[in-house]
């Protein structure tokens, strides 16, 4: 038990907090402590009845326990962790700010497309940002498709379509992920460009730590999936 707890504590803080919140929320629904009707995104209830918790809880519920829930949890955990241990290594405040920025955009867009739960779209956003920052990683999806990482969000969207799910959720995640990637990685490097996304100092004060744990053992970022649908290797490696 102690080793399991130790492994749990080795998960980086943002990934650990978010995935734990998602699992606990789903468990509470399964145990009928709460219902999805208390969690879903509803602008009218938020503005008129001041049920502001819905701004957060709609990102935490991925449906009842089943294949779709497990699929989303696996991708959420893997790609959230690889971002936090990869390009956001030592930049916890910037990672939290990406969560806030992405969540805000999705909330705004979700109002117009009538989505009530945005957790899956948020997962796709994380996958999109990781895939664009690791363009040379070759992926294998269920042993059927071989492609490079930037195509992963689109492959997942196709998979959702095959399962009969709405692709609006995937498109929203891709769109928000692209906005973040463009503003953070592309536009600052363009002639006349600049950095529009700056993490507020109060977030840096709360989340950034001056030192890293020397014993911390991150997941290797060149193994993006860890499962049959996500294993890959870098080109030239």
UniProtKB/TrEMBL annotation:
Its main location: endoplasmic reticulum. Pfam families: DER1. One of its GO terms (biological process) is ERAD pathway. Keywords: Endoplasmic reticulum, Membrane, Transmembrane, Transmembrane helix. It is a multi-pass membrane protein. The chain crosses the membrane at residues 55-77, 98-131, 151-183. InterPro entries: DER1, Rhomboid-like_sf. SUPFAM superfamilies: Rhomboid-like. GO terms for cellular component: endoplasmic reticulum membrane. Functional component of endoplasmic reticulum-associated degradation (ERAD) for misfolded lumenal proteins. May act by forming a channel that allows the retrotranslocation of misfolded proteins into the cytosol where they are ubiquitinated and degraded by the proteasome. Belongs to the derlin family. This is Derlin. The gene is DERL2.
């Amino acid at each position: 038990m102690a080793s399991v707890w130790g492994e749990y504590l080795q998960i980086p803080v943002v990934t650990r907090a978010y995935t734990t919140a998602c699992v606990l929320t789903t468990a509470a629904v399964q145990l009928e402590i709460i219902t999805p009707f208390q969690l879903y995104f509803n602008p009218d209830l938020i503005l008129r009845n001041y049920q502001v918790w819905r701004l957060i809880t709609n990102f935490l519920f991925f449906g009842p326990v089943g294949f779709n829930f497990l699929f989303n949890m696996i991708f959420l955990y893997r790609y959230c962790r690889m971002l936090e241990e990869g390009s956001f290594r030592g930049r916890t405040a910037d990672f939290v700010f990406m969560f806030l920025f992405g969540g805000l955009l999705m909330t705004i867009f979700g109002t117009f497309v009538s989505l009530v739960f945005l957790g899956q779209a948020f997962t796709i956003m994380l996958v999109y940002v990781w895939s664009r920052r690791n363009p040379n990683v070759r992926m294998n999806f269920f042993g059927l498709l071989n492609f490079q990482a930037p195509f992963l969000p689109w492959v997942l969207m196709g998979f959702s379509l095959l399962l009969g799910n709405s692709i609006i959720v995937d498109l929203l995640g891709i769109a928000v992920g692209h906005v973040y990637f463009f503003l953070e990685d592309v536009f600052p490097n363009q002639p006349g460009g600049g950095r529009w996304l700056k993490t507020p100092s109060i977030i840096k004060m709360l989340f950034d730590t001056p030192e890293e744990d020397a014993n911390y053992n991150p997941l290797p970022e060149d193994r993006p999936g860890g499962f049959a649908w996500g294993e890959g290797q870098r080109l030239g490696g």
